[in-house]
Amino acid sequence: MTQQNILELAKQGDTNAINTLVSQWLNLPSITAKTSLKQDCLQIMLESVKVSEQQSLVTLIHNGLINLGIQSVEKVKIYGREIGEDFPDWQQELELKIQSSSPLSKSQANVDIVSSNAITTTTDSQLSLQKPSFLGSFLGAVSGTAGAVGNAAVQAGQAVAGAAVGIGGAVGGAALQATEVAGQALAIVGNNPPLQLAIKSLNKDWLNLLIQQVDVVKAEAYVRKLQQEHPNEQPAQIAHHLMLEKAVLAGTSGFTTSAVPGQAAPMFVVDLAYTAGLSVELVYQIAAAYGMDLKDSKRQGEAVAIFGLGVGGKTAIKAGLGLLRIVPVAGAVIGASSNAVMIYALGHAACQFYQAKQSPLTLEATLVNAQVESEKYIEAAISQEKIMDQILVYIVLAGNPDKSWKDILPELQAANLSPASIDAIAANIKSLPSLKTLLEQINSDFAVSLLAQCQRIANLDGVVTPAEAKVIDSINKKLNCDLVAIKPTFRPLNWHMR
Fold first, then answer.
1. What are the tens digits of pLDDT across the range 54-95?
2. What H or E segment, with its residue span, contains residue 95?
3. How far apart are CA 314 and CA 198, in angstroms?
4. Domain ends where: 92, 118, 144?
5. What's this model's pTM, rounded to 2 decimal places?
6. Which helix (H) or strand (E) holds 68?
């Protein structure tokens, strides 16, 4: 193809031709450009081994695009990312359409620079999505102490995933310690065959490594801070705060791969090790809320027992949590809605366990009832998972207006959605439930995670379209309507989905 042909195709909006020109302008073999087009916004990802220098690259590309004069493109978003990372280190948005009456020259075009963690907004309706009033306190906490603690959990999960080969070979002392911790867990639950079987079904090697990675000092310090902020709340109410915050963390991060425009499957999966790390940390934080000393080695056996109680039963497999039985190797995934089920189920089980532990003489008998409650909780959570996944399809379709539910279905089958979710979506292809109907069925706690996930999916390509904004706004209104229901009135032994 001649240079003239490339120029002509680029002016018509051909992304392959534009990408070729961008690579020519940069003339840097160390940087790979990836270009896509969504509506009137051109998106260019620059990948390199080290974080690339922002301003000179942006100026070079901007000037080239201005001179190219692509009629169908009004703005461009340029991202810089290290190879292997999921999210950009920086991003910058620039206008390409300059009004003829404007006194500004092309080099003076309006440039909007945002941080890699911010949501770029271009309309009033999108601006309101940057930090919904309902989630303000949670997102604020996540960016502060909770974020620091959560990042430690993420790193722990990644460390375990990185060590997966070693775990598979049963590394001497670590494997022995895992066996000892599992023995402690079995002793705690006593004569309870179903719960003992659930504990035995877990992969104790990687679970033990996650437990070892918990920063107990940070975890306990954060819980104490939360208790100071809510001095009149009971342990179960503090636990509810922790669960909601972890749900936000899990919903806004942890995607295993950057979504490729037009491909839905990557949007629906998250890293299993990431979610498992957050979940183990949550169990420890709830222990602290109930007054437990996190440095006591007994917490390790209790954590394993709680995992067995919360996600070790047969019903958990139906919820898409069967991967807990294997090593969370790098790239192993869990459904984007399943991560909320996992976090809430474990938080619910931890509250049941530590409430039961307050009466040691009746602990074993109480745990029998607790396991029944956990199974009921997971069953109810599966129905929530199905609703969440259908709403997530709505946000994907909003960002891909040329696709239908029928077009998306094959891509979803390649994702790690639970079989129940796939069945529900397939059954409703010809008779779609309205978004309003789905939102009326969702529990407020799960809606918190859903909102975070929808925001992340909508912003994976850097553009929130009006259609995507409408879906997110509907969820936000649902949360505002149910504000009272989400306040910390959590009762772990009798709480059920509405």
1. 877 888 888 888 888 888 888 888 888 888 776 677 888 888
2. strand 90-95
3. 8
4. 118
5. 0.66
6. helix 54-68
